[in-house]
Amino acid sequence: MPRRPRILYLITRGILGGAQIHVLDLVLFLKQEYDIDVAIGDRGPLYDRLREEGVPVYYISSLARSISLFKDIKGLVQVIKLFKKLEPDLVCMHSSKAGIIGRLAARLCHIPAIFTVHGWAFTEGIPSTQRVVYLFLERIAARWAQKIICVSEFDRQLALKLHVCKERKLITIHNGIPIISKTLLARTENDSPVRIIMVARFSEPKDQHLLLTAISQIQTNTAFEVILVGDGPLLKQCQEMVDGLGITDKVKFLGARADVPEQLARSHIFVLTSKWEGFPLTILEAMRAGLPVIASDVGGIRESVLEGETGFLIPRGDLETLESRLLELIEDPELRTRMGSKGHDRFVQHFTFELMAQKTEAVYREILSGKG
To answer: 182-350, superfamily in CATH?
Structure first.
């Protein structure tokens, strides 16, 4: 029997965010045909889940998200040692820090490398100092990868505009998620109260504050409530904000949940008020459930949400437009149903996991065959 190709995934954080779910889904799909290993910078939920699935997982203690010269050099040494021990045929990096350290280690070890961009660390909305630093680093690290997969065309075009690398290295493969049972399709018509849901980590990019401010100002006779799913460093701050705005009767905090599809199925409107994004899986989950989407027009979001058809796009931080669009969908059940249905159809046509996996594996095969 010929030896199966060995693929090593490298990712910085172990939270179950979009990049981590992307890696988990790919690993579970590909492990039937490839020998798969995963190296990770912390022992979070992703680490535990992979071990439960029988996937070899390696902890890189110095692979941290923040920039630290001492830690990053130590992390590079640890990654190189792991590469030499496992001798993978291909290394696939996810997230900015893992992408930079991993590509350098792969270059030094003469191993083909693919970096997947889940939103550039120099994209619009990110603080300017961080953007300058990461743009400089990405222009260097891009030389050490055979291919760079962008999960949105927005990110591919941004890389070309800012001269990160040559066009032949960049390819767009939109995120995709598995199809689920029709029993988990939302009913967006006249249930009461209208349930508005946001699924996102409570951190700086997601800007739950904007949604809470908008909710506090909406005047309508239609009963509604807001469901916030997720945890994170700004959770307590948002809870205090809800108390201060006097909207505790309208807002529920559910924390991190394993039943997100069920929560979406019981909802009527999905909202994501991010300051910056790549191509969020949460929006695809909402479309899969048949929910209309209101989202910030940042990153690659307009490649999933069609303005006025499957939902509404709002300018980053635009409180007035967010309030207006929320009110429109709260008071119009027919519009919710029409947009949600079109969103579901668009998901099935363009954003299933099967489509993403086929395109991604094709890139892997190209590199493994030496043609890339």
So the answer is: Glycogen Phosphorylase B; (3.40.50.2000)
